[in-house]
Specification:
The chain has 6 helices and 10 strands, in the order ββααββαββββαββαα. By secondary structure, it is an alpha+beta fold.
């Protein structure tokens, strides 16, 4: 509280205009609260500006408030227009959603293991270092050794036809949703473009040293593995029945 310098009494209460010379001091206990948004926080990475929130979403325009109510429907519409995916809320009527338990057990099964896969990955790490061919440096344990040519039909570990891919991107690569053309250009299937991190990869150049001595062989393998139609972007209804128009034709490599 700031006192007056030229008028006495020094203090005056602005609401009732009562005046007094010395303010009364009183110690009041307060309770502090801490908010934890870890379970529901979603980073939108610049998809929405503060001005857009102010104009479209805030129900209160008092900027002195640290927390302001928002119009959830307007916010969801704005997020959807920027291709930001929002999952279901983890809360409902003030309580945590309780989902039925999923049955779990173990069973024996026989699988075919690839001979030499570990050594293939080790050689790729020696060649490229811990670098994903699509996204750059990554933790080594997150990188898979991927084959450019289908291993199921050509079971060879050809070093020139190998790439290191982050595990999640390797799965999409095997499903033909991420492909690479012979110009080392990354292509993203239209169904993935609503995912901001993946859409940024579309049109990017493969992260391989241009001086890599095996690069010409890799280009040749990529050219040979192209399907009947060149590259991505062909509508599904325009593809001949049973023909995969994307550069690679395999399920798992």
């Amino acid at each position: 509280m700031k006192g007056r310098t030229s008028v006495r009494p020094v203090y005056r209460y602005s609401k009732c205009f009562a005046t007094f010379g010395q303010p009364k001091e009183e110690v009041i206990e307060i309770r502090r609260y801490r908010a934890d948004y870890a379970r529901s926080w979603l980073a939108v990475e610049g998809a929405i500006t503060a001005g857009e929130l102010e104009a479209n979403c805030y129900l209160s325009h008092s900027k002195q408030q640290a927390i302001r109510p928002v119009d959830l429907a307007a916010l969801r519409t704005l997020l959807a227009s920027r291709h930001v995916l929002v999952g279901r809320e983890w809360w409902r009527d003030g309580g945590v959603i309780e989902l039925p338990e999923i049955p779990a057990a173990r069973r024996r099964r026989t699988v075919l293991g690839r001979i030499g896969q570990h050594e293939f990955r080790r050689r790729l790490l020696e060649r490229f270092g811990p670098v994903c061919a699509l996204t750059g440096p990554q933790p080594p344990d997150s990188l898979h050794a991927a084959h450019v040519t289908p291993y199921a039909t050509d079971p060879r570990h050809e070093l020139a036809g190998g790439l290191l891919l982050r595990a999640d991107l390797h799965s999409l690569f095997d499903l033909h949703l991420i492909t690479i053309d012979s110009d080392l250009m990354v292509r993203i299937d239209p169904s993935l473009r609503k995912y901001r991190e993946l859409s940024r990869l579309d049109g990017a150049t493969l992260r391989i040293n241009p001086a890599d001595p095996l690069l010409p062989t890799l280009r040749a393998l990529l050219e040979r593995c192209k399907g009947p139609a060149q590259g991505l972007g062909l509508n599904e209804d325009k593809r001949p029945p049973g023909v995969d128009s994307r550069p690679f034709g395999r399920r798992r490599n």
